[in-house]
Amino acid sequence: MTARLLRASLMLVSCFAVLGCDQLPGRPKPGPEVPRPDSVTDFATLYRENCSGCHGAQGMNGPSYSLADPQYQALVDEQVLHQVVANGESGTLMPAFAISAGGSLTDQQIDALVHGMRAAWYKPGTLEGANPPPYRAAATPDNDRGAQVYATYCASCHGVAGQPGKSKAGSITEPAFLSLISDQALRTVVIAGRPDIGQPDWRNAMPGHPMSDQQVTDVVGWLSSQRTGAPQKMAAGGAR
Are residues 152 and 82 in the same domain? Predict the structure, then answer.
């Protein structure tokens, strides 16, 4: 019996010697290691995993506005992009991605996303001489004027307010829609447009008659007042 055990042990040791230590039971086999999630700083990977579901695979044609639009990139700056990615956007489905705000991305990863967007989609001189309304509103909106601005610039595509289903581009006065979008997001789309879906910018909603800063502020204020439970007049400061 002892001799048999000895021979079996010698055979087992010989097998291990032939196979090598890498084949020991329980030892991982050679292959590419999976990187730690917080070590990934490649823009394409970060964008695909965190942004493409809402903003589209190539920064456009998603349910949210086009990040690949040079006009949008010219309207904002890196500080604004970093703030939105890190902290999210109140009143929308845009979540906070920074670890400090409850997300999963490090500051380095957020920097990689912002720098990647700018490198890929920012085109210097895009709005040079165009004098666009500023990204954030500073004036107080007038909702009565905003209703007139909507009728002039928006109703031809989005329909007369209160008449859903009678517009070629979809109603934007429905409370259900307005509950999913913030005043700032409305302002952004009014100014920069959505070229990926044919939404004109502030210059081309009525060619030859660009919208002024005050008109953008007024129409956003009026749209905001259409939300369920919204007060009839917005507080000073305009977009949130």
Answer: no
